[in-house]
Amino acid sequence: QGGLKEGPPTPPIPPPPPKKKISSTPFIKLFFKTSKNLFRNFFYYLKNNIEVFYVTAVNFPEGIEDAYKKLYSILPENKMRNFFGISYPNENGNIIYKAAAEALFPGESEKYNLESFTIKKGDYISEKITNWKKDVSEVSNVFQKLLQDNRINRQNGYCLEMYLNDNDMIC
Asked: What proportion of the chain, given as a percentage, has pLDDT over 70?
């Protein structure tokens, strides 16, 4: 017989835990990333195109508030409607800003005699701003950081503000 004493059997190695989803809703998947300068951003995945209609600000940034006031004055109150800000430079480098509301049914823009725009599905390099009204300049600061990312579409892309509620937004 062998000279080694047998001990209790070695327990099997447990399988690794299942990978957890960070976030999942019908419209978004969030993939968080922290860069070396501790600027926290994430990819916002928009699953479907969103049809919106808008009021263009007369100037930027001074005319943004008036554009939203005009948009709100046209629309009936609806807590289910989502609001957006869309901005991009024109051929002269001036910023065009559109205060936008999600269309709740096809052709709604015509009902209010407003122009329409399609927010394209896909990935958006983003950052959430909490309580943005406390320091409105933070919105500009965040977009300046985001615009430094070499993955953005400089040909026909745009900056997008997605208002989550009265205090928070995703840029």
From this structure: 75
